[in-house]
Amino acid sequence: MEFLPDISFARKTDSEDPLRSFRDKFFIPKSSKGEDIIYFAGNSLGLQPKTVRAYVEQELEDWESMGVEGHMHAKNPWLPYHEYLAAQTARLVGAHKEEVVNMNSLTVNLHLMMVSFYRPTKERHRILIESNAFPSDHYAVQSQIKFHGFDPAESLIEMKPREGEFAIRTEDIESLIEKEGSSIALVMFAGVNYYTGQAFDFDRITKAGHAKGCIVGFDLAHAAGNLELKLHDWNTDFAVWCSYKYLNGGPGAIAGAFVHRRHLLDIAIPKLWGWWGQDKATRFLMDHDFRPIPTIESWQLSNPPILQLAALRASFDIFDEAGMSTLREKSLNLTGYLEFLIKHKNDNNIEIITPSNPAERGCQLSIRAKTGGKTLHKRLNDSGVICDWREPDVIRAAPVPLYNTFTDVWKFVEVLFS
């Protein structure tokens, strides 16, 4: 798309947008004047689909009228409720139905995956992670290293960008894995780095790790619902994600996990057991012999929260209607327009630290103000723009294709440079 730096271009592009009706499927927060705010924080918390209330109220009504019988006789029986989302989840992350499940929270799922896939030995005990990964990922991998009796100072490798750069070059990741791979048990990167907005090359990182005998996993918190993913085809060992950002599942929404099909029947893989991972045909025999479900469901511990699943299902139905390839196409143009306008107006105080290559980013641009960053962020908020600040000096702006417009982008940049 060829961009123009005026609002008439933005309005015309919005009028021709095949996804323009999807904005009406979401509640857009209002300013004190009753106007729609510019919401560029879907990378922190997605907006509420208007259908969520009906989806959740259906389960509340069935709970009210049936009590425990709702497990079997609700309109959407609760016992298999998580299965209703399996095919949709698989489409969103590029997997088979038996490879995905919605359960727990992201860091809980990460720990469960590391129980199974981080099996350090004296010779191979290190974990490779990007240096500025989200703090929770750092906490999780450090605690797993310590749990196994190793020292994070020796067993944790933090991959840093080159001096003076913000993004980590894929060839540098490959080079480090080639050099240190014989000592690396687990390569664990984000799909999209929360701070810089860099999208990593899943395929190349996975191939590099596997070539050296490493397990490879990804945290998709900022990638699920943002990028077109092909976890099965990339041969990724495992992945985890939250569902409250781009997936619009609501605050604290139930999270998700992926395990590649080739691992599902491997009885040598250790895992923590719970009754929702037990064979469905014998689960209620209440015996003490664990017979795992032959899918990723065997990693489940407890029955899932139905109200959270209902909210997430409302969003997934919208994703199914829109289609990830169509959403990604619009995302590339929205984010490209944001980059174009910032560069067109730039006063040399602002730089974009997210990669300029569209293949290396999602819909987030991380904007660094060389001076007065917090003041600038406050001015944006005071002007009816919601985006977020990340220490020490970055404003993250995420124009989400489901509900943001090109006019939103144009107005945001006008405020940014006002």
Keywords summarizing the entry:
Aspartate Aminotransferase, domain 1; 2 domains; 14 helices; four-stranded antiparallel beta sheet; Aspartate Aminotransferase, domain 2; alpha/beta; 418 residues
What does this structure look like?
Helix content is 36%, strand content 12%. With 418 residues, the protein is of the alpha/beta class. It has two domains: 7-36 and 323-416, Aspartate Aminotransferase, domain 1 (Alpha-Beta Complex); 58-319, Type I PLP-dependent aspartate aminotransferase-like (Major domain) (Aspartate Aminotransferase, domain 2, 3-Layer(aba) Sandwich), CATH 3.40.640.10. The strands form three sheets. Strands 2-8-7-6-5-3-4 form a seven-stranded mixed sheet, with helices on both faces. Strands 9-10-13-12 form a four-stranded antiparallel sheet, with helices on one face. A two-stranded parallel sheet has the order 1-11. A hairpin with a 3-residue loop joins strand 12 (388-390) and strand 13. Helix 4 crosses helix 11 (306-322) and helix 5 runs parallel beside helix 6. The chain is globular and about 65 Å long. It starts with 6 loop residues before the first helix and ends with a helix.
Q: Could you provide a short overview of the structure?
A:
This protein has 418 residues and is α/β, with parallel strands linked by helices. The protein is 36% helix and 12% strand.
